Amino acid sequence: GVPYWISNYTALRVERETGDTGPGPKLTVGAGVTLAFEPGDNAGFRIGGSGSTPAPGSLAIDGTSAAPVTLTSAAAAPVRGDWPGLVFPPGAGAAGSIQSITHATIEYAGRSAGISGYACYSEDSGGTRLEEDGALIIFGWAPTTSFLENSTLRHSLGWGVFRGWDTTLGGDVDFTATNTFFDLEACQQNNIKDTCPGAGAAVVYACAGTV
Length: 211
Fold this sequence. Notes:
The chain is an all-beta fold. Helices cover 0% and strands 32% of the residues. The chain has strands spanning 4-6, 12-14, 26-30, 34-37, 45-47, 58-62, 69-73, 86-88, 99-102, 104-107, 122-123, 134-139, 148-149, 152-156, 159-164, 180-184, 203-204. The strands form 4 sheets. Strands 1-4-7-10-14-16 form a 6-stranded parallel beta sheet, with no helix packed on it. A 5-stranded parallel beta sheet has the order 2-5-8-12-15, with no helix packed on it. A 4-stranded parallel beta sheet has the order 3-6-9-13, with no helix packed on it.
């Protein structure tokens, strides 16, 4: 019943060690577990390396309807953008890496994950650029199906699911089915890069704001 507290100075990574040629590690988070992330730039949860160099790793979040897994802020008074959220760089899609999230609540995320150039230039209705951040971020690879099911993404900056790939990597995989989204800065999910309406122009998302 006591949450795991992830310090801003340590963050949380699931990745194969550099130089290791064996299978990537897998972290399983059991039903009812809470992970509380101390607010700050480093307090994130990255699966498959910390950048564009693939380092295989797998995550299984095995919540149930009666006992969901919660990923939240450790702040006494949490606000949107306290921590960067769940981040899946290219190593999360490397051979042998399998991602699975079911019955999870991801909240108060969306702090900058430090990535750019993986999506359309997007603005809200007021002309403010929407950054490439969100509660769940995938970049540099494309899943073949949604690995997020029966989950809630709420109280976060950026997108619910940021899909950072184009059609050279994969198709337009929908992450909204079976999931619930609300109190987000932007939309439930973004358009993948080369399917944006208005080629060469900013894409204005009508749903920017609370959804």
